[in-house]
Design brief:
Blueprint lengths: L1 H26 L12 E7 L5 E6 L8 E9 L2 E8 L5 E9 L5 E10 L9 E3 L5 E9 L2 E2 L10 H30 L1 H14 L1 H27 L1
Helix pairs in contact: 1-2, 1-4, 2-3, 2-4
Length: 227
C-alpha cells in the first residue's frame, strides 16, 4: 500500500515539475542569437587586488551612440556606466551579460533620458558578470532592428501543447492505476474503466495541465519582466 502512495505522490510531483518548468524551458524560453562578447576593452584600472575598472568600446554600430562604457568592480559589487554621444537625448538599449565561460545568462533593458553630462546612471550587475555586450534598440526618435532574436514561433508553441497533452494522458493512466491499487477490491476492477469511459480520466488531467500551464506562463512573464 505504501508503495502505491509513493508512486502516486512521485508521479504528481514529476508531472507538475515537467509542465511548470521543463516543458516551458524547452519550448517557451527566450533564446538569443548573441553567443559571445563583441566589445573591446581599451583601458584597465586596478584599485586593489579585487577592485578594478575596465573601459570598453561597443561594436561599430552601437559605438555611434554609446561611445564607451566602464565595467567596474568595487567592494565586491559590479557596475556598468555608459558614456554617450552628445547627440543622444533618449536611448533604449539592452545589456547582454556573459559569465566567465562566455555564455550569455541575462539580458537587461535600460531606458535613459540623458541630461547634460552625457552619461547613463550607474547600474548594478550580478556578481557572475564577466563581460557584457551593448545592443542599441532606439535613439531619440530612431528605432533599430534588434540584434537579438526572442521569437517564440508557432512550432514551439504547438510542440509545447502536444507534449503537454501526451504527458497529461500518460499521467492520467498512471494516476488511475495507482489509485485503483491503493483502494483495491471491486474499486480496482471498476474505477479505471468507469473513469475512462466517462471521460473524466482525461478531463481531470487536462484541467490540472491547464492550471500548471497558467502557472508556468505567469512565472515566464514575471521572469522576463524582471530581466
Amino acid at each position: 500500500m505504501l508503495f502505491w502512495y509513493l508512486i502516486l505522490g512521485l508521479g504528481i510531483l514529476l508531472f507538475a515539475f515537467s509542465v511548470i518548468f521543463i516543458l516551458p524551458k524547452m519550448f517557451l524560453q527566450n533564446r538569443y542569437t548573441i553567443r559571445e562578447p563583441k566589445d573591446r576593452g581599451i583601458k584597465k584600472y586596478k584599485f586593489s587586488e579585487s577592485d578594478y575598472a575596465v573601459v570598453y568600446e561597443p561594436s561599430l554600430f552601437a559605438r555611434r551612440y554609446v561611445k564607451q562604457y566602464v565595467l567596474a568592480k568595487r567592494s565586491g559589487e559590479k557596475t556598468i556606466k555608459c558614456m554617450l554621444d552628445p547627440s543622444v537625448i533618449y536611448i533604449d538599449f539592452d545589456i547582454v551579460l556573459f559569465d566567465s565561460e562566455g555564455k550569455a545568462f541575462l539580458v537587461i533593458n535600460s531606458n535613459d533620458v540623458i541630461g547634460d553630462g552625457g552619461y547613463t546612471d550607474e547600474m548594478k550587475l550580478p556578481p557572475e558578470t564577466s563581460y557584457v555586450t551593448i545592443l542599441v534598440n532606439k535613439v531619440n526618435e530612431k528605432t533599430f532592428r534588434s540584434e537579438k532574436s526572442v521569437n517564440i514561433g508557432l512550432g514551439r508553441i504547438f510542440g509545447f501543447g502536444i507534449c503537454n497533452v501526451i504527458l497529461s494522458i500518460g499521467a492520467s493512466i498512471a494516476f488511475l492505476y495507482s489509485l485503483s491499487n491503493i483502494f483495491g477490491g471491486v474499486f480496482r476492477e471498476s474505477f479505471p474503466e468507469e473513469m475512462i469511459s466517462s471521460g473524466l480520466a482525461f478531463l481531470v488531467p487536462a484541467a490540472i495541465s491547464a492550471v500548471c500551464t497558467l502557472i508556468a506562463s505567469i512565472i515566464l512573464i514575471l521572469k522576463n519582466k524582471k530581466r
